[in-house]
Design a protein that fits this description.
By secondary structure, the protein is mainly alpha-helical. Helix content is 78%, strand content 0%. The longest helix has 32 residues, at 140-171. It is globular, with a radius of gyration of 21 Å.
Amino acid sequence: MVLGYPPQVTTRKTLGEREFIFFMALVSAMSALAIDLLLPAFADMRPAFDLEPDATDLSLTITLFFMGTGVGNLFWGPIADAKGRKPVLVVSMALYGVGAFISAFAPSLAVLYAARFLWGIASAGPRTLTQAIVRDRYSGDAMARIMTLVQTAFFLAPVIAPVLGKGLVELGSWRYVMGFGVVSAVAVILWSLRLEETLDPAHRRPLNFKGTVRGFQAVIANKVTRGYLLAVTFSFGAFFSFLSSSELLFEDVFDRSSWFVPFFSIVSVLFGGVALATNRLLRRTTGRNVAMGAGVGMLVASVALLAVALITDGTPNVVLFLVVFTVANACHVGFFPTANSLALEPMGQMAGTAAAVLGFTTSVGGALLASLINRSIDGSVTPMALGYAVYVATAVACQAWAAHHAKAMEPVDA
């Protein structure tokens, strides 16, 4: 319970639980699709914009998308708490389609860059709304179970999207890839017609600058939310470095560049399986126990990773490194949706604002933390191993602090 509000909104549900989960999974995957679909199209895009075959200019389309997502998180959450979840979802997906449409017909790199930034702002909407809508309908461990199922789509998207993107390029051109963003946005909008508003009108918050700032302050002031927010941010700092620097490790440290795509595809499927296993585990124990167990497991694997790196002067056996590295990241997959749900638990119908703060902090803060690791990688895995150990240790400490305060807030049985 927070600010005198009930912890869960009760509303008539048009979507059954299974359809609701599939819909939320699609919505949550929209951001990942907008990134991973584009990667196979880069080779086809370079000549279209008069770029050299080895030019890196197109990588800015990914960076600008992430920047737009970080900025967008701060807006969609408070708007959703004021105007309701469903209209904001529809508007953000319409803007998503506009960004994709402009990208598809971009006549120059400057227009493409601007469109991708707009696309990123729009993609923050479905990401934030997924968490807020799930929090409206579920609470506690039930929310954590639903979020682990929804999160499975996030990890399977990197497996499916590149194949789909390559197929669209072969079918037509890179513009077909951008156009798919329009099609998927329309699909979500049409499907959302079956979704009833999940935020009780009586619990809507006024939309103004002071009210929004007070909402952000209320989220940060809650010790449980703040502790889990920091835990997820530091955990994401390590995980983002894995996403952004894995290819560099394969090429620069291990001289196994051909291994990257198969490895990334295999671990993505594995991570989807871990998310499903976490869902089953949450039926037998509490989310707090699952988050702590996953966090400790991630810490043990990270310390082992650092030991392997130090013993081998930063160039360990590639198979040994990948096994330990994968275990650490698999634990993150179990940790993230559970800890994220625990962070939202005290927020009640302020879930939109809370999800906005979580999205912004984990995206921007995690990216900045990851950049410290990425800039230090130079022919050795030691910087990444050290970064994992430090960040994960901090994350575990933060979640232990949050769990302590959550337990202190629980009512004492007579």
